[in-house]
Specification:
Layout lengths: L1 H26 L3 E8 L5 H13 L8 H4 L3 E7 L11 H8 L14 E9 L12 E9 L15 H12 L2 H15 L9 H20 L38 H23 L6 E6 L1 H7 L1 H16 L8 H5 L6 E6 L10 H11 L1 H9 L3 E6 L7 E7 L2 E9 L6 E4 L8 H9 L33 H9 L5
Parallel strand pairs: 1-4, 1-5, 5-6, 6-7
Antiparallel strand pairs: 2-3, 3-4, 8-9, 9-10
The structure holds guanosine-5'-diphosphate.
């Protein structure tokens, strides 16, 4: 009953908020909530920083129709309306990218938000008649890892533990899990709870999750263990999976972990989905597809699985808790392969095709819910220039940039992406250890030293097209 009341209360609160937001936008100024997500290091921070910089200075945004038509007359940052949500630290990130020795800014660790307001003149025959209006874009940045927690809501502690432990005992993961599993062997889960033991078990589990990530596996739950946000060190994330003890006792380690797992669902997972996720109108999912290709077929197979899980959040089952609180659906979802400046433009369409193949299954399902979806290859900040090298009489298309580690200039040809991305996905699914046609190398480039003309934002690839897909219609 308590669960039912909880669901009901969440549903009613959301419905009221939606009604209020709808009334506000009819009476006053429309608000578009743009969600930006992706796994750690996918490029969320750089995307938001460059998008905002390029909307403030719009010289490099011709593919955004409102800019091309001269109807977007002003853009400015505003105090955000949600007082309790940290603000996306645009100024610090923008400053990091500026100056004679630019740095890549610090990555996303938690949810944050920024309000950018745009003054637009209406399109078409209304242009001369109606006055300008303001459209607010609320950009919500959040770790994709947190979306992986959604399935936990339908599991109890015993079922979740069972899943995590059996995954850890599979051949691909057992070696990484060895220390943690060995520690579990000596543990009596029915013994009275002690905080010290709890902490050491939880920390061994976290080490295993970290090892998984280092090895290129993306999906590890709970999502907050590696991306704790402001929960670092709190009991809500000090638990781990356990085999059930023969006898269950109140006050045992097992019983306490069971309570913490339930508390994690109640006070961490649900509030995130209710307060942030359920309010999103437009979504960009950033994917480091080149990074996964570089890491090999197993990383690609894992990424594909994780994307299916992540995107499951956009299509919850009709009877799930999430569907009761989703007021309106996400109208558009863009899957963007990031860091396209690592390859020559001749390969961009192949990268887009890889991106589309990675999300093909998930995308069919999201389409089913009526969301418009698109796949694209973008670079939020272009750190390279293109060049042609001649090697043994043959022309080779390369990109040139300054390497992040050494600061040296280097030219790179990462390997030709296949014309048929299905072959990559098939090799990944079949469990191949290496790619048949050779490897894809990726170097990390330092951010470019920007010498911008007045009115220009940082150089990018297709950021304006991405913006047109995501918000263009709301600026018409
Ligand atoms: P987040 O964890 O999703 O917030 O990831 P970041 O936005 O911090 O990006 C992680 C790293 O990827 C950055 O430090 C850069 O090295 C690299 N990166 C992200 N976007 C780009 C891009 O457009 N071009 C290049 N060359 N590198 C990028």
């Amino acid at each position: 009953m308590r669960i039912l009341l909880g669901r009901l209360a969440d549903g009613i609160t959301r419905a009221l908020e939606d009604a209020r937001a709808e009334a506000d936008s009819l009476l006053f100024e429309p608000v578009v909530r743009l969600g930006v997500t992706g796994l750690s290091r996918a490029g969320k921070t750089i995307f938001i920083t460059s998008l905002v910089a390029n909307l403030l200075d719009r010289g490099r945004m011709p593919q955004l129709r409102a800019v091309r038509d001269g109807r977007l007359t002003a853009a400015f940052l505003q105090p955000q309306p949600d007082f309790a949500v940290p603000r996306f630290d645009y100024e610090t990130h923008r400053a990091a990218l500026s100056g004679p020795e630019p740095q890549w800014p610090a990555s996303t660790r938690q949810v944050s938000q920024l309000r950018l307001s745009l003054r637009v003149r209406p399109a078409g025959w209304l242009t001369g008649l109606a006055g300008e209006r303001t459209v607010h874009i609320d950009i919500v940045d959040y770790p994709g890892e947190w979306l992986l927690d959604l399935p936990l809501l339908s599991l109890d502690y015993a079922a979740w533990s069972e899943r995590m432990l059996s995954a850890a005992r599979t051949p691909g993961r057992a070696a990484l899990a060895a220390d943690w599993l060995a520690g579990l062997g000596d543990l009596d889960a029915a013994a009275p709870f002690e905080e010290e033991t709890a902490q050491s078990v939880a920390s061994a589990y976290r080490d295993y999750l970290e090892a998984l990530r280092q090895a290129g596996f993306s999906g590890a739950s709970p999502g907050r263990f590696l991306m704790p946000g402001d929960l670092a060190g709190s009991p809500a994330i000090t638990f781990a999976p356990l085999d059930p003890p023969g006898r269950s006792r109140r006050g045992s380690l097992y019983a306490q972990f069971e309570r913490r797992f339930e508390a994690y669902k109640r006070s961490v997972i649900r509030p995130f989905f209710r307060d942030h996720f359920a309010r999103i109108d437009r979504q960009i999912v950033l994917v480091d597809a080149l990074g996964a290709l570089h890491a090999g077929p197993q990383a690609v197979a894992d990424l594909r699985e994780v994307l299916v899980e992540i995107l499951g959040a956009f299509r919850p089952g009709p009877n799930s808790w999430l569907s009761t609180i989703l007021g309106k659906r996400v109208e558009r979802i863009l899957f963007a392969a990031t860091k396209a400046d690592h390859i020559h433009h001749g390969q961009h369409s192949a990268l887009t095709a890889v991106m589309a193949a990675l999300v093909a299954d998930a995308r069919r399902r999201a389409d089913f819910r009526g969301a418009a979806t698109e796949a694209m290859a973008i670079a939020s900040v272009r750190a390279t220039v293109e060049a042609e090298l001649r090697r043994e009489g043959q022309a080779l298309d390369v990109v040139r940039g300054r390497l992040l580690e050494s600061g040296e200039e280097a030219a790179m040809h990462p390997g030709d992406l296949p014309k048929d991305p299905g072959s990559l996905v098939a090799a990944a699914e079949a469990g191949a250890e290496r790619w048949l046609d050779g490897d894809y190398s990726v170097m990390r480039f330092a951010p470019p030293v920007l010498s911008l003309q007045p009115g220009d934002g940082p150089p990018h690839i297709r950021l304006d097209r991405a913006a047109e897909f995501l918000i263009g219609d709301r600026l018409a």
